[in-house]
Amino acid sequence: MKKMFSRISGLVLISIGLVLLSSFFDAPPKAKSSFRMAYKQAGLTDRQAAAHLLSRFTYGATPGEVDAVVAQGLENWFTAQLTATNADDSLKQLLSSYDALNLTNPQIELIFPRGPAVLRAAIKDGVVDKDSVKTDRKEYREKIQAYMREKGFKPEQELVRQFINQKIIRAAYSENQLQEVMTEFWFNHFNVSFTKPDCARFIPNYERDAIRPNALGHFEDLLMSTAKSPAMLYYLDNFSSSGTNTNMEQQNNNRNGAFRKRFAANALNNDSALAKKGQNPKKGMGGLNENYAREVMELHTLGVDGGYTQSDVTQAAKILTGWTIYPMGNLYNNNAGARKALEQLGEEKMKERGFVHEGDFLFAVNRHDNSEKVVLGKKFPSGHGYDEGVTLLTMLAHHPSTANFICKKIAVRFVNDTPPQSLVDKMVKTFKDKNGDIKEVLITMVSAPEFWSKEALREKTKSPFELAISSVRSLNAQVNQPYQIFNWVNKMGQKMYYYQAPTGFPDRGQYWINTGALLNRMNFGLALASNRIPGVKFDLLALNQHHEPESAEAALKIYSALFMPERNTDETTKRLVPLLTDPNLQQKVDEAAGKTVTAQQGSADAMQEQDMTMAANTDAQQMKKIKAKAVAKNNTPAATDMATTGGNNKYTLSQVIGIIIGSPEYQRK
User: Fold this and answer.
1) What is the mean pLDDT of the chain?
2) What angle do CA 342, 347, 349 make, to 5 degrees?
3) In terms of Cα–Cα distance, which of 372, 438, 369, 368 is closest to 402?
4) Comparing 206 with 278, which gets the higher pLDDT?
5) Taking phi first (over 0 means left), then psi (-120 to 50 degrees means alpha), and beta for anything else, what does residue 32 get?
6) Considering only CA atoms, which of 465, 663, 639, 444 is closest in space to residue 563?
7) What is the pLDDT of residues 390-406, one digit of tens each?
8) What pairs with residue 323 in β-bridges?
9) Could you give the CA distance from residue 227 to residue 230 in angstroms, rounded to a whole number?
């Protein structure tokens, strides 16, 4: 009996063990990729392929990151980047210092009112007399500044600076690098600009709400989100576009018409846009504006050769009449009447009468052209409203010309300036088959041999922004004053968010590289490595395990390999050694740094004060956490301070690093 019991007990234990073992093996594995990259067909090693991935889908490899990607598996790393789910707690904490980034557009309107709105409020409150603007400018400015402080108003430039700072912090430190790269790509594609005052204050939320969440989603969602954003509606003037609405004309004498007249009288009373066009805003009708309709076809979807005509542009503009901005009226601007009229009507009745309100977007049915239209051969029957705009944008998002235009633009960004048609064709097929899924298009691209060919490796040129951020990442640097980086990016030719044309910055090397640009890039490298850019700290010796090279040539070899992993840098070293023997090199470094200081003197006191504010807002403790995380992940020493000279003073390590950053080879990615 004991034997039998023992046997039974043994069988039970074995069964339990098998169940536990089975459950262990059946446990859901970590998400893995379902595709394979074709780099081995191109003769690349895992490390070479990882370096190529990092050069294209991040803002540059950090120390040890090539090894980390190889250990994770290239496909697995890319899959994680596509989902953008890597933990970014330290980054979020850093960004929490910028209090304007989470504000809604109406809140921004209240806290960062534009000059005309502040002046109206100050006059209304009796703080200033409107005639004093002409008689005593200094006294007027002082009173306005005191009034803004009293009311809690902040200058719009502070909003802009916080927004630019967060962009640099995200690019430098986000673990979800591909999302940041694609956010920049799509912002440039759907470009809006701070140079247009009416849309400027809406740009931070445009990137936050319309671009970044959709950067790796479906193209249709991205197109629709940008079309409804106040930034785009103002930038391309669709907010004021209106047409003939026969139903509204018939209702002008009834109660419904009275509301429509009252709403229209205030809806377009913008601070400056209509006045510049010589229109009377109180009429509430801006007439047909074709700007957005033209650009949504030429730049956003079909492309300049996409098969549309001028008639299609005009008809599309009519379809999009009434696509405007829900008035953010308050005591300090002229939209208060329009907002009050809509609030009195109520959301339910608005919907009944054909209005559509989604966040900051408003479809104003009374300004919509409800006649019959034809675009690209498709008939849009008369009597419709908001729905035909949605139908139009959906049609454009899925048009074959759009698939070709978008896929080629993505290939230009990530492969080379003239990508092979064979690759574009593969991406186009995926775009069509997968409903414009951006992730799937990127997977198709990296799975193709063309992405890994010798014609693709290191054949793209870094933009100034990419150069600056890749340098920060190569150095494992701590950036406490991000706006200083922006100043240098601007000096090198890329004033982020200020490109005036709707085309966005060109994505071709010939646009970025010329004699003057190369000089500015070299000056940037020398100034950065010589610790001449305020608020940027790093430890050069730590990058080499605290070992100091014995000579300038040795330093060039070692740090070139660190900064440009998996490249043959022998020729680069030979070309750069003579620069280090230039007896005037230190003078050139000093001059480069001096020019930067001079260039920033424009409004010295205000700029310094704001820079100090931004520096204080940047949480140094969180930056240390990022560094600690990098150490744990990459097994590299944390960067704290900067080592500048060799012990025997035969060469200056910072000059070596500066020359590497400014070298033509480092400009390639």
Assistant:
1) 83
2) 85
3) 438
4) 206
5) beta
6) 663
7) 999 999 999 999 999 99
8) 363
9) 8
Using an 8 Å Cβ cutoff, are 634 and 62 in contact? yes
Structural element, H or E, at residue 361 = strand 361-363
Determine which of 15-24, 205-214, 357-366 has the lowest per-residue pLDDT on average.
15-24
Q: For 237-273, what is each residue's pLDDT tens digit?
A: 999 999 988 766 555 545 555 555 555 545 544 444 4
* DSSP designation for 298: I
Please say whether the beta carbons of 589 and 658 come within 8 A: yes
What residue spans define the domains of the chain? 2-83, 92-176+183-211, 236-384, 400-452, 464-667
The count of residues in the chain is: 669
> What letter does residue 638 receive in the DSSP assignment?
P
- Residue owning tokens 């998002």: 397
Question: Bridge-partner residues for 375, per DSSP?
Answer: 378
Asked if the model's pLDDT at residue 441 lies above 70, the reply is yes
* Rounded-to-integer distance, Cα 612 and Cα 610, Å: 5
The whole-number pLDDT of residue 332 equals 55
Dihedrals phi, psi of 622, to nearest 5 degrees: -70, -35
Query: CB-hemisphere CA count at 13 Å for 371?
Result: 14
The sheet that has 356-358: what strands, in order across it? 323-325, 361-363, 356-358
Which residues, 6 or more positions from 75, have their beta carbon under 8 angstroms from its beta carbon? Answer: 32, 33, 35, 36, 37
Between CA 143 and CA 118 the distance in angstroms is 11
Structure tokens that stand for 550 in this block = 């014995």
Give me the residues paired with residue 324 across strands.
362
pLDDT of residue 235: 98
Residues in Cβ contact with 337 at an 8 Å cutoff, skipping those fewer than 6 apart: 262, 265, 266, 269, 329
Q: Which of 138, 141, 87 is nearest to 115 (CA)?
A: 141
Check residue 461 and report its DSSP letter: B
Whether the pLDDT of residue 418 is over 90: the answer is yes
280 pLDDT higher than 90: no
**What is the DSSP track for 408-443?**
HHHHHHHT-SS--HHHHHHHHHHHHHTTTBHHHHHH
Beta bridge partners of 479: 536
Whether the per-residue pLDDT at 7 is higher than 60: the answer is: no
Instruction: Give the count of beta carbons closer than 10 Å to the beta carbon of residue 647.
Output: 7
Burial class (CB in 10 A: 0-12, 13-18, 19+), 97: middle
Contact indicator for 618, 94 with CB cutoff of 8 Å: yes
pLDDT at 598 over 70: no
pLDDT for 359-383, tens place per residue?
999 999 999 999 999 999 999 999 9
pTM: 0.85
Tell me what percent of the residues of the chain surpass a pLDDT of 90: 65
Mean pLDDT confidence for 412-438: 98
| CA dist., res. 145 & res. 137, Å (int) | 12
44 φψ region: left (φ > 0), alpha (ψ -120 to 50), beta (else): beta
Which amino acid is residue 490, in one-letter code?
Answer: N
Closest CA to 79 of 456, 566, 440: 440
Alpha-carbon torsion angle 167, 171, 174, 179, nearest 10 = 90
pLDDT at site 395: 98
Spatial distance between the Cα atoms of 399 and 303, rounded to a whole number of angstroms = 11
User: In Å, what is the CA distance from 500 to each residue of 194, 199, 222, 406, 578?
Assistant: 8, 12, 21, 21, 41
Q: Which amino acid is at 276?
A: K
> What is the rounded CA–CA span in Å between residue 399 and residue 378?
12
